[in-house]
Design goal:
By secondary structure, this protein is an alpha+beta fold. It is built from 22 helices and 8 strands. The strands form 2 sheets. Strands 4-5-6-8-7 form a 5-stranded mixed sheet. Strands 1-2-3 form a 3-stranded antiparallel sheet, covered by helices on one side. A hairpin with a 6-residue loop joins strand 7 and strand 8.
Length: about 450
Amino acid sequence: MTEVGIFQQQNSVMATTAGGLRLALPPCLRFPQPSIRAALSKQSQRFLTSIATTDNLATTGRLIRKFIASNSKTVALDALSHLVSPNTTSFSRLSPLAFPLYMEISRTSWFNWNAKLIADVIASLYKHQRFDEAQTLVLEVETKLASRERDLCNFYCNLMDSHSKHQSTQGIFYSYECIKQLHSHSSSVYLKKRAYESLIGSLSVINLPREAESLMVEMKNKGLRPSVFEYRSLSYAYGRLGLFEDMKRVIGLMEDEGFELDVVSSNMVLSSLGSHNELAEMVLWLKRMKNSRIPFSIRTYNSVLNHCQTIISILEQPKGIKPTSLGALLENMNHHEATLIQELVEPSVLVESMELTSSELKLDLHGMHLGSAYLILLQWFDDLRMTSATKKHMIPDKVVVVCGMGKHSVVRGESPVKGLVKEMMLQMKSPLRIDRKNVGCFVAHGKVFMNWLNET
């Protein structure tokens, strides 16, 4: 048994850390929901479709070579990233082909070796039990980075992170064992801190906060100070599991260590509370943010509105009639949701999304989830109506609403935010129309738009 051993015992993974801490890791866990992955390019879609229709290895190899030879670096890496992503649903059975695809990519003139990419490939192969191919790539990395222990340590930390995204507890501890072997022959504090940081973060991702916190205690006992990253990861893991007292306790420990509560940690708390429908607690947390002068962000809106059932229901019916003012929206909500939205609405978030010059009034919806885009639109209309009524405005030459063209949407080229704006503009009979020069924008003449706004 090595210093960090991994073995199967009664269907549980057991591991021993350098400090002698034994972790019993249950096999059945409630994992966090994966993030949505952007869609494939059309070229990658055609390539994977063609491969999916053949079982002949020689034909598959020929198709891979042809694809790499005839497409750009961006398209090739797009296909590879899709195959190794833990969130891939389409073509998931083709994931083992990541190895021959990566090997073909690595032979191109444009290829730049990347530790994070190869870690993602190895973790995907490991998940699909392609251990020989995974080990081939691991040996390649160890040979390449043999004389650079810090880079090799960072690679194993990347690998640990990639394993955590695939919910592979055994993979996480395999990577940790390799790091331990590295710093057992080194006096580097950096190696030790990076190892603990990655292991605590990875255990938090797979919802093992008790085990992660035990490691944090071990880390402190060795004179190593955890960073804000470990505290955030740990509190978020407790929060996702609904262990809110532990979540708040870790936030308190973080503040005791001199790390200020910030918008990133607060958004994690809001997301955790929202996933368990704790609306009253979300209101209290928003108040705490205001009292602590923590500015709201677009991600604050996303974290809250992803869990607002009334808004979700409204947006699930794209052709349905939607409230077109903040007041009308609040009338459609129960007391708890209305209180939450009233506490959330913050002029500074709208201001950050707007640009106003004499020639153009622009509202940029980039980075917003659907619920956030909807609420910001309602805020924007209400704000423009108010400033128009008090004559505290200038009329720009052009009004623009930027939605994006759907490059990062689930279905490439079909932006949900663009679809929402289009439906609302039709419902409200707005003069804003899709820009012929940029289909990711809606445009209108400033005077025409302001006249319409004053009439609604």
